[in-house]
Amino acid sequence: MTPYEKLKKCADIVRAKTDFVPQIALVLGSGLGDFAESIKKVCEIDYKDIDGFPRSTVEGHKGKFVFGHIDNVPVVCMQGRVHYYEGYDIEDVVLPARLMAMLGAKVLFMTNASGGINKSFSAGDFMLLTDHIASFVPNPLIGKNIDELGTRFPDMSEVYDRKIADIIRETAKDNGIKLQEGVYVQLTGPSFETPAEIRMLSTLGADAVGMSTVVEAIAARHAGMRVCAISCVCNLAAGISPTPLSHAEVQEAANNAAPKFKVLISRAIEEISDALSTGAI
Ligand code: HPA
Questions:
Q1: Cα(first)–Cα(last) distance of the chain, in Å?
Q2: Which is the closest atom of ligand 1 to the Cα of 241?
Q3: What is the domain count for the chain?
Q4: What is the CATH number of the domain that holds 211?
Q5: How far apart are CA 136 and CA 133, in angstroms?
Q6: Quick one: pLDDT at residue 35?
Q7: I need a labelling partner for 32 at 20 to 30 A (CA). Which of 64, 77, 109, 238 fits?
Q8: How far apart are CA 117 and CA 199, in angstroms?
């Protein structure tokens, strides 16, 4: 089966269960899984019921699609995502993003947890992604191009949509939520970085480091989606943080930030949808 045939098969399974067409696709990172509970649900599909769909093995990540409305915005929400470090092929890591594009979503809105490299960041800050560095992970478009989705050599000069970023900035301001911004670098993980690696990443221009998002963003842009992402800077990166890093610390910080994160995300989704529907962006 070609990657496109696999994707099509997954889309057909979803379509046999629901004809819901999302406008915005939402990927929830560590600690934010229960955001899906605030969606007015129309339908839920467990990843395990989609033959061929990759399923997460990480604690704190659930595994289902939730279709429904935030305010009146039709969304599909991924409650749980898979990471490259779990051992999946990079093509499987980006299959969900491509699938949501095929289901009709115009915007991919991602959240994640990261370590802060920029010295002006504090643990618990949110960072709007303005760009990324993909050079440390395999490119998800390697292999025969899927012409049905997009072009062989897609432009990446504006991965994170500037107009959508403006809306998110404005939304944060209106709700009194502090929002940093910067460049996110994805590494494979699962080990955290060494202090020397963090110094290297800082020199390269990265503000925050994590283990997700970038490959999905590339696949989504390839498939013609507009992309935005916000990171929860859960800890200061290795060598900047005075203490050793742990998944428990990341999870705890993400859980603490969740209430504010949820406000920012739901309000931003309403504003983005309004702007899309009125043709303002
Ligand atoms: N490094 C990589 N990924 C992360 C970190 C980090 O410090 N914190 C949360 N996800």
A1: 38
A2: 7
A3: 1
A4: 3.40.50.1580
A5: 8
A6: 84
A7: 238
A8: 8
